[in-house]
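Worked example (supplementary).
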Amino acid sequence: MMGTYFAGVDIGSTMTKVVILGEEPIASFIGPTGPEHRKLAHKVMEEALGSARLAFDDLDYVVATGYGRINVPFADKQVTEITCHAKGVHSLLPSAKTIIDIGGQDSKGIKIGNGKVLSFVMNDKCAAGTGRFLEVIADALGVPLSDLGTVGLAATAPAVISNTCTVFAEAEVISQLAGGESVPNLIAGVHMAIASRVYAMTAKLKIEADVVVTGGGAKNIGLVKALEDRLRMPVLVPAEPLLTGALGAALIGRGLYADAVISGEPVRRRAKRLGEATFFS
Amino acid sequence: MALAVGIDVGSGFSKAVVCEGSAILSSAILPSGGSYRDTATRVADEALDKAGVARAAVSLWAATGYGAAMVPFADLTATDISCHASGVHCLFPSVRTVIDVGAQFSKAMRLDGQGKVTNFVLNEKCAGGSGKFLQLIARMLHINVEEIGALSLKSGNPVAFTTGCAVFAESEAVSRIAEGALPEDIVAGVHKAMASKIVNLVVRVGLAEDCAVTGGGANDAGLVKTIGEEIGVKVLVPPEPQITAAYGAAQLVQAKGVP
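After joint prediction of all chains, the assembly is encoded as:
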């Protein structure tokens, strides 16, 4: 195939995301990251290449990002997910000044100006305020993770979840359920608890509109509404909120490639093969 | 003979101690479960049975702990901080720092030479430094929580967890096991993660020797050893660390008497 193509691969704690870019994004794929000792990033890349009808050698530059970015044997460069999220969100929603990313095992707040990172805060030390909290509660209530958002919207009076810690909140939810509290009220209460936690962290940045919410948490309509209530402002959600990091990575790759072409330096891709990424070197 | 009973209704377990002066005649431990009021009565009756003493022979009753308000027959209700301090001071008068590792809470206390509390810090927000963490890991490894201590002492290569969060560590442990990590190295790694949270409490309260560890966590020899290594001093452990606050309650009620 002719033309230039770039890929961004975002290896998150839970999901791996790939975006392939020509002039415009032409393909993407989201798959599980896999256990830590055996990352499945190359499989996700193969799927994305398949739907773009490209071979790996057709790619001119590959940028890896996300917490598992370090040992990706088929990437030309690693860039932090903070930078990639900022780039990706800015390209989709140029009015964005604050990004709230709720991932599988972390949450972040990022302030951006002209697509550049001005400051950020992050929590990856405590499961409260992350997707893991939602997973644990969904399991405890026997509600599929993907249904939490809509089920929570049916709440009549959100339950008050007084514990911050995921372990204690799980026990609290089970005991409130046994005490007769409704599942929608409990889920709405959990969404409020996460929203408060994320708000408290992000507020350190001085939140400015427009606020964009990304990551798996942005697919949960109940959580997005709880965040809007807490922020007292509407938020924007990209059509594919999981892909902003991978998109940003691909855009950064395209930029690096263009810089090299302009400066006349040959863009020499290191000899790469599409192989397994590993967590440990 | 004048007998006193101290009852500690904790979030995980309820304990009762029958005392005559500073001597412990008997003790009992039951899961707190359902009704705190019933549990308090049952655990006291069990301890009294063991001592061969009738309820009517008890002249002083004291209650402490999470559910202390549910013990209507207590002559004295005191905070678990002051009961811990009293209990530890009676057992080990040289102790100035007490670390209590309970089922859901951990705390650090500083005592003066008279056994009065001069400062304390609680961790009640995070399972990372509490017995709950041990329960989660025991469940994951399909072992009893009582086996963790001895297992940990066999470890030569504790797993390094990235965070002290019990939820994240549990999933990290699953990955490490899949990679072939040994159960003893997993539990020793959990002890290190817990100890670093607990040491934070000790630093905030200020470490002074001697140091004692109490609560159910003190039954875990691996945890006690790791805490000692992390704070760099030898730690004392009462023979029955879980009943420390109940014992202290019985001591307090005897010291104060009842009008």
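Two points are worth noting when inspecting this output. The CA atoms of residues 111 and 119 of chain A lie 5 Å apart. Chain A has a mean pLDDT of 90.
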